[in-house]
Amino acid sequence: MGENLIDLFGEVDHALKVFDRMAQSVGPRLYSCCNCRNHVGLHDDIISKAFQGRTGRAFLFSHAMNIVVGPKEDRNLLTGLHTVADISCADCNEPLGWKYERAYESSQKYKEGKFIFEKAKIVKEEDW
């Protein structure tokens, strides 16, 4: 019985090492600008895929990278008045969506500091 237990632990240890190597080789799942493929967001930072943008479906992200944030302006959106700033790709200047700077409705405060990426303006990197 002791040998069987040692064999089992050896197999589990090997499986964990293989899984760890696989996880490291995959890397982060990235979204990129549709125009120049500059990395702009991580899949793990998606809060919701149920948003509406100017061009259709949009994703709410907690963070963004390699973007330029434009001037703030008040905009009346589907969920009420917000202060937003348009965001664009830092490499090619492609408009990508906007950043929520301020929400005036208490039920919308969770959006503050978050980013909307229009689905039509970003692409998944092909690694995943």
Written account of the structure:
- By secondary structure, the protein is α+β, with helices and mostly antiparallel strands.
- The chain has 1 helix and 9 strands.
- The strands form 2 sheets. Strands 3-4-8-7-6-5 form a 6-stranded antiparallel beta sheet, with no helix packed on it. The chain has a 3-stranded antiparallel beta sheet with strand order 2-1-9, with no helix packed on it.
- 23% of the residues are buried.
Major sheet: 6 strands, antiparallel
Number of helices: 1
Return the structural class.
Answer: alpha+beta
Task: Give, in order, the helices and strands.
Answer: HEEEEEEEEE
Spans of 5+ residues with little confidence (pLDDT < 50)?
A: none
Shape from CA axes?
A: globular
| Amino-to-carboxy terminus distance | 42 Å
Whole-angstrom Rg: 21 Å
Quantity of strands, as a count: 9
Strand order of the largest sheet: 3-4-8-7-6-5
- What is the beta-strand fraction? 35-45%
Mean pLDDT over the full residue set: 87
Fraction of helical residues: 10-25%
Protein name: Protein yippee-like
Domain Yippee: 29-126
Family: Belongs to the yippee family.
Keywords: Metal-binding, Zinc
Q: How would you describe this structure in keywords?
A:
3-stranded antiparallel β-sheet; 9 strands; 20% helix; globular
Question: Outline of this structure?
Answer:
This is Protein yippee-like. This protein is α+β, with helices and mostly antiparallel strands and 128 residues long.
Secondary structure blueprint with pairings:
Blueprint: H1 2-26, E1 30-33, E2 39-42, E3 46-52, E4 57-61, E5 67-77, E6 80-89, E7 95-103, E8 115-118, E9 122-124
